Amino acid sequence: MKKLISEFKAFIMRGNVLDMAIGVVIAGAFGKITTSLVNDLILPLVSWICGTRDMTALNILVRPAVYNEAGEVVKEAITLGFGSFVGTVIDFLLIAMVVFAIVKVANKAHDLAHKKEEKAEAAPEEPAKPTTEELLAQILEELKKK
């Protein structure tokens, strides 16, 4: 049992798991921010443009409710609630755009890092400059040849 607990502790303390946990927490908070942005700022503007008080009130009536003589509902009305669907789609698109931007920046940084590594590897090493003694020895050899 102790071995299992120590293995679990080692697994949890690995960098990837901690990074993932932090990402999940931040993503949850970011999801709340975008949901608030959509529900509290964007959808009221869309509702105002559409002339309704609330986007969730934008429904398509498929079948009206059926009432009996006493005014009680016999069959419930069937509606397609596209207003809340539009809000959810806008929320998704905002999150998708932000994730796309983050991935694009990360890929760009990754590419730049690899280009720097490739340049460092591909750069030919300059040949070592000959010392004064080596130059004098070469000159002496040339003079001996002539």
Can you tag this structure with a few keywords?
two-stranded antiparallel sheet, mainly alpha, 146 residues, elongated
Structure write-up:
The chain has 146 residues and is mostly helical. The protein is 70% helix and 8% strand. The chain is built from four helices and four strands; from the N terminus they run ααββββαα. The protein has helices at residues 2-12, 15-50, 82-122, 132-145, and strands at residues 60-63, 66-67, 73-75, 78-80. Strands 1-4 form a two-stranded antiparallel sheet. Helix 2 crosses helix 3 (82-122). The longest helix is centred in the last third of the chain and has 41 residues, at 82-122. The mean pLDDT is 82.
Order of helices and strands: HHEEEEHH
Rg, please? 35 Å
Please, how many helices?
A: 4
What fraction of residues sit in β-strands? 5-15%
**Low-pLDDT residue intervals, each spanning 5 or more residues:** none
Question: How many strand elements?
Answer: 4
The global form is: elongated
What is the straight-line distance between the termini? 88 Å
Quick summary of this structure?
The protein is 70% helix and 8% strand. The chain is mostly helical.
Set down the secondary structure blueprint.
Elements: H1 2-12, H2 15-50, E1 60-63, E2 66-67, E3 73-75, E4 78-80, H3 82-122, H4 132-145
Antiparallel strand pairs: 1-4, 2-3
Helix pairs in contact: 2-3
